[in-house]
Amino acid sequence: MDAILLQILNGLDKGSAYALIALGLTLIFGTLGVVNFAHGALFMIGAFCAVTLQRVLNLSFETIDETQKDFLGNPLKVKTPYVEAWFGPEAGAWIIDWAVPLALVIAIPIMLLVGYVMERGLIKHFYKRPHADQILVTFGLAIVMQEIVKYFFGANPIQTPPPDALNGVANLGAIIGMDIVYPVWRIVYFCFATLIIGGIFAFLQFTTFGMVVRAGMADRETVGLLGINIDRRFTIMFGIAAAVAGLAGVMYGPINPPNYHMGMDFLVLSFVVVVVGGMGSLPGAVLAGFLLGILESFASTTWATTTIPGINQIIIYLVAIVVLLTRPRGLMGRKGVMEE
After folding, report:
1. Is 50 part of a structural domain of the chain?
2. Is 19 inside any structural domain?
3. Residue 179 in contact with residue 283, Cβ under 8 Å?
4. Which of 9, 146, 175, 219 has the fewest CB atoms within 10 Å, counting from its CB?
């Protein structure tokens, strides 16, 4: 039972990332009708927002410390981060330690801006083009963004550690008498993903803006005839979807050190999640993300990989085949979506 619960936790951890990226993909497809293959790159950019902030906060200047001597008796040069000089040693050290959570603050406006520029500068010209054209142009954009990140940050993964207070493990099974030890940051990531997903659904369900967007997703022409600038609202939704992907990337950095191809790694899996959940279905994307994450976790166990070698690499695609053969629209797909 301990092993089963541990694998479920691992699945929820992976599923959180899948669900967040798939949610953004579905928001873009549901509102704009665009198949955005550059969405994984937005996830990567979010992760590198945390990397950039971490490097900026660690910028230092050298001073001579007369209290420390080298083996020749000369004073040592000591590097002091600027934030420690500005805010004091304790406050500066705290800011550096909490660089990843603080990166959420700068990632939001950056990702909103990136999403706006992508939509206005490129995506809007492909609204009425075939989905194949959309896939090709957004995939090309993803490669360009990937190579830009590789040029500035290199090809190797970059460590972005979580705050020391959240870097340990928690015994989740102590309450129920089981031995289930799990990393604290992974629990934080799952809670963060749940909060973001809940916030998006609440925004769409209970705000006037969200209700107009949902109406536009169902019947864009009628909403436009009512005098509502639905295109502007959809542009904002593209920015929000980009921000969701970016925030997911920021928080995922301590779990998997950011590298220039991490967006592509998640993109294909997330599209499978969207297809399994149902194109255009937000609840379906979230449900499929968590379900496939749990299945992948169980398929990665020693027993599963010994019994069927390589099953952990193909389980998601096998499930997708089975679902599409039995339910061509996905688990919660809507009639008419991509059926013309």
Report:
1. yes
2. yes
3. no
4. 175
DSSP-derived 3-state class of residue 278:
coil
User: What does pTM read for this prediction?
Assistant: 0.88
Q: Which two tokens stand for residue 234?
A: 């959809």
Residues 6+ apart with CB under 8 A from 84: 91, 92, 93, 96
* CA angle in degrees (0–180, nearest 5) for 315-274-103: 100
Sign of CA dihedral 73, 78, 84, 90: negative
Locus of tokens 């959309």: 134
Give the separation between CA 270 and CA 40, rounded to whole angstroms.
Answer: 8
Query: How far are the Cα atoms of 53, 82, 231, 258, 336 from residue 56, in angstroms, in the given order?
Result: 5, 9, 37, 16, 49
**Can you tell me the distance from the alpha carbon of 25 to that of 267, in angstroms, rounded to the nearest whole number?**
10
Token pair in block for residue 200 = 């998006």
Check pLDDT > 70 for residue 178.
Answer: no
Is residue 186 a part of any domain in this protein?
yes
What are the tens digits of pLDDT across the range 197-231? 999 999 988 888 888 888 877 777 787 777 888 78
CA distances from 139 to 77, 268, 277, 300 (A): 48, 11, 22, 29
Whether 200 is covered by a domain: the verdict is yes
Place of tokens 């399994």: 276
Domains in the chain: how many in total? 1
What is the structure's pLDDT at 42?
A: 92
* Residue entry with tokens 């979230």: 286
User: Helices 2-32 & 230-252, crossing angle to 10 degrees?
Assistant: 150
Are 248 and 20 in contact by the 8 Å Cβ rule? The answer is yes
Write out the H or E segment, with its range, that includes residue 102.
helix 99-121
Distance CA 111, CA 201 (A): 20
| Structure tokens that stand for 267 in this block | 């993109």
Full domain range(s) for residue 11:
2-59+106-326
CATH number at residue 36: 1.10.3470
Distance CA(290)–CA(338), nearest Å, equals 24
